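Appendix B, example 12.
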Amino acid sequence: MEEKGAYCLVIYLSRNVSIRIGSLGTIKFKPGYYCYVGSAMGGLDKRILRHLSDKKKLRWHIDWFLQHAKITDVIRIPSKRRIECLVSKIVRDISDSEIRGFGCTDCKCSSHLYFFRHDPAGKISKVIKKSLPKNI
């Protein structure tokens, strides 16, 4: 059986761009790094491979963003529990800013996409490992 859990996509955007993001409308994104926190209760590998693919139906907010940006790192967080929102709060607390309303239409979080001036992959991995309970 495939592992379930949450994941973080570390994404690099090289230039200023305005993107129409579904019901959120057009959002202006600045160059830099972004971290998207997602859930994969149907299987981590399957969901991550979908995000890495260029051939997919645009369905989620992140799909539109990834048309203009590049995934540079993936952080897998295996768990049988739904921990996406907990991970999102951890990432929010170390980010430079959030993209309000992005990727969180099915929860009460203010966002699931965060901006970083510098590559946050190592920092995110360390903070998540330190902050999550061991029995997740």
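The longest helix spans residues 84-94. Residues 5-131 form one domain.
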